[in-house]
Amino acid sequence: MNFPFQLPSGRAFDVAGFGTNAVDFLIRVPEYPAFNSKVELVDYLQAPGGEIATAMVGLQRLGLTTRYAGRFGDDSAGTFGIESLKAEGVDIEFAEIIPGALTQIAFIVIDERSGERTVIWKRDARLAYSADEAPISIVEDARVLHITPHDAQACIALARHAKQVGTVVSIDLDNTFPGLGDLLPLVDVLVTSAEWPSRMFGIDDKRGALRALRDKYGASVVGITLGEYGSLMFCNDTFIETPGFPVPGGCKDTTGAGDSFRAGLLYGMVSGQSIEESARMANAVAALKCRAIGARTSLPDRSDLDALLNA
């Protein structure tokens, strides 16, 4: 099945991202510690992350052109985060450094047995955007706008302009934020965590929850990520269930797997693939990401992706 919309042509960037960046401090432990206990860590790592920044790096490695708009603090973490994007070739013309602010950070505890992680994060309120501060011009230069709704009013301004200029809007959603009711009707591709639609609508059945999500907000394509089990998409009253791929060498860390899935899905969409093949690519990118600790450490290039798809 083809995606039910036309991407614009002649744009400078394939995908523009607006939303979160972060610096992650990843701590690997033999098993997740019990309350009020002590555990010796296996190892630890500082690495760049954040949903949208990670997705832009994933797309860039696969060969697309990307631009990132977001805010960093003027601390050492901010310098680290910005340099990580520059090193990958992501355009950072609209990345801002906010004097006196602290860059978003996350402390991530990884269970060595499974690679599953627990995230403890903090975002400085000074990094937030108002509607008036939204970098509107990034929409006009991109075929796709990919966002997280942490600054919902700015996202609404961007998505409304995207509708005016024909840019496709994609959102990464795993929580509820003020303003979602106004933002989601402007979204074309709405992919959430597995639990979010069921929590939102009180429907345990995942297919019923996805249908309710589509009916309420009208996105052309809705879907959920299912971890190692793959994904479930819904378009044109058809459900598309795609199995996951085993992680080559075993799962080391699931941090950023959802961000990687969205990068793979957008890569397939921009490359003219069907929804089925795009979902398959997305599952493969997410599996390859889990080969190493860190949200971006083992994001694949196209040769890595092809090798897994053809295995």
Q: Ends: how far apart?
A: 23 Å
What are the secondary-structure elements, in order, as H or E?
Answer: EEEHEHEEEHEHEHEHHEEEHHH
Low-confidence stretches: none
**Total strands:** 13
Radius of gyration, Cα only, in angstroms? 18 Å
Give the mean pLDDT: 96
Question: Would you tell me which CATH topology applies?
Answer: UDP-N-acetylmuramoyl-L-alanine:D-glutamate ligase
Quick gist of this model?
By secondary structure, the protein is α/β, with parallel strands linked by helices. Helix content is 32%, strand content 26%. The protein has a single domain (13-21, 51-97, 125-309), classed as UDP-N-acetylmuramoyl-L-alanine:D-glutamate ligase (3-Layer(aba) Sandwich).
Describe this structure in words.
This protein is an alpha/beta fold. The protein has one domain: UDP-N-acetylmuramoyl-L-alanine:D-glutamate ligase (3-Layer(aba) Sandwich). 32% of the residues lie in helices and 26% in strands. It has ten helices and 13 strands. The chain has a nine-stranded mixed sheet, with helices on both faces. Strands 3-2-6-7 form a four-stranded mixed sheet. The longest helix has 15 residues, at 275-289. The chain is globular, with a radius of gyration of 18 Å. The model has no long low-confidence stretch (mean pLDDT 96).
